[in-house]
Amino acid sequence: MQAGAALWLAVRSVAWAVLVPGVVAGYVPWRYFGVSQVSLRLVRPADALGVLTAGLGVALLGACIAEFARSGRGTLSPVDAPTRLVVRGLYRRVRNPMYLSVSAILLGECLLTRSLALLLYWAVWFAGVNLFVIGYEEPALRRRFGPAYEAYAREVGRWLPRLRAAPDRS
Fold it and tell me: Please, are residues 89 and 161 in contact by the beta-carbon 8 Å criterion?
């Protein structure tokens, strides 16, 4: 990939990351669910676990976004999706690591805020994500990538990682 194309892909990837998971797991919890009011004390186990969980979610989300750009030549947005099926990195373990990463961020924030409302927000969001994945995303991937996606879906779980990773097909 040429330097200009790679830079443009990086800009689009960051923009979509800010726009989608940034709003879902950043702005909304900060603005409406008390994340901005957290008085962090890492000696409290819930705070330490919340920071660890949310931080891990951010790191894994970053790895997924980078893999979409590197292997798939696309972004996390359905309107700017990868042109190649991404089956490397975390995608060898689970088909939807980006959504699971956002879940980790939100659940970490639940621990930090002790907010049942934020937990309900996560549950509604995750239910919506399930409907989106099953109703739109998977059928679109089947149409776009055909037998390659079918084989991938047989080998890799939608939400729960398998004990053995799928083979690296890159």
Answer: no
Count CA atoms within 13 Å of residue 161 on its CB side: 10
Write out pLDDT tens, residues 43-100.
999 999 999 999 999 999 999 999 988 888 877 777 777 889 999 999 999 999 999 9
Round to whole Å and give the CA distance between 17 and 109: 18
Type and span of the H or E element at 111: helix 97-113
Domains, the chain, ranges and CATH?
3-155 (1.20.120)
pLDDT digits (tens, 9 = 90+) for 107-140: 999 999 999 999 999 999 999 999 999 999 999 9
Measured between its terminal Cα atoms, the distance across the chain in Å is: 16
103 neighbors 111 (Cβ within 8 angstroms) = no
- Cβ proximity of 111 and 50 under 8 Å: yes
* pTM higher than the cut 0.70: yes
CA 61 centroid distance within chain: 5
Residue 125: which residues within 8 A CB-CB, separation 6 or more?
24, 102, 106
Q: What's the burial of 11, exposed, middle or buried (CB within 10 Å: 0-12/13-18/19+)?
A: exposed
